[in-house]
Amino acid sequence: MTRLAVLADIHGNLPALEAVIADMQGQEFDQVVVAGDLINGAPFSRQVLEAVVDSGWVAIRGNHEMLFLEHLEEGPGKKARRDSRWVLEMTAGQLGDQWRSHVAAMPDELTLRFADAPPLRILHGSAGNPFRTINRHTDETEACTLLSGVREKSVVTAHCHLHFERRLAGRQVLNPGSVGAPLDGRTNAAYMLLNGDDSGWQAEFRRVPVNVGPLVAEFRRLDVERRWGAEGYLLVEQFRLARPLFSSFRRWHVEHYRGRGESVELAAEFLSGGRLWDYLPPEYQLNRHLLEDGVEVPVNGQSGTGCCA
């Protein structure tokens, strides 16, 4: 039997990665695989890359590695997409030139071929596109499009930051969830164990408690709220609340304050007013009780075909 640990979407969150590494202690794996987005978001991108490389893990690029490389290549006439430039500047400062070549040489996709298990395709988003992925609401028609050209019957994907196992387009589709930036209201780091044999791949989803205090303290040391205003404030709160805040806030802002500039005060009003749930994208409307009572429940050993509802 082949045994794998699959991680994804660490986003520079070293405390979360360290919690997962501690949870993995004492277990033997044939390989540890990271399905993209190791960097960009939390302020420890360099330390995350160092930990992954020093551990000898296999990793692919995600969309944030692509954004990082594009940011370094920008000329005076080019403009980074919104929500990218300021955090990419922070990431570039963390990594320096020494990590550029490493990220540039990372593969975009992988196919794992072990002798005692079926081939396993590792993607970040979809084949050829790290920015589009299958999520818990993707229908059969869209899945066929996203998996076009994928011959393997078992596929790991990431990017949506929610763990699940689904049967779509004649394939087993697995998402390990996010180590560093879960978006289901639980700050617990998510990753996946895979056991493979002649019968296929069996998944076990794990959630590991994470202390977000060191992360918040580092953001405060960097003074991100003063430097980047509402976006800096929302970045910290997105890690603290484990919710997708940027798009949610902007929908609320346009509806209630169109024509008024974004500010920390408005972002704080949005989060303090009990409005967040109604503005979350449907696929992220999970664990509503955590918005009401702040409960954080570790879930370990969850397996089967369910998602993270």
How does this model look, in words?
Helix 7 runs antiparallel to helix 8 (224-241). The radius of gyration is 19 Å and the shape is globular. Mean pLDDT is 91; it is low at 294-309. With 309 residues, it is of the alpha/beta class. It has twelve helices and eleven strands.
Summarize the structure.
The protein has 309 residues and is of the alpha/beta class. The longest helix has 18 residues, at 224-241.
- In DSSP terms (H or I, runs of 4 or more residues), the helix count works out at 12
Question: Sheet with the most strands?
Answer: 6 strands, mixed
Strand content: 15-25%
The N- to C-terminal Cα distance equals 30 Å
Low-confidence stretches: 294-309
What is the CA-atom radius of gyration, in angstroms?
Answer: 19 Å
**Mean pLDDT level:** 91
Layout of secondary structure:
Elements lengths: L1 E6 L6 H11 L6 E4 L10 H11 L2 E2 L3 H11 L11 H11 L4 H5 L5 E3 L7 E3 L17 H7 L7 E3 L6 E6 L2 E6 L12 E9 L2 E9 L4 H10 L1 H18 L3 H13 L6 H9 L3 H4 L9 H5 L8 E2 L6
Parallel strand pairs: 1-2, 2-3, 5-6, 6-8
Antiparallel strand pairs: 1-9, 4-5, 7-8, 9-10, 10-11
Helix pairs in contact: 3-4, 7-8, 8-10
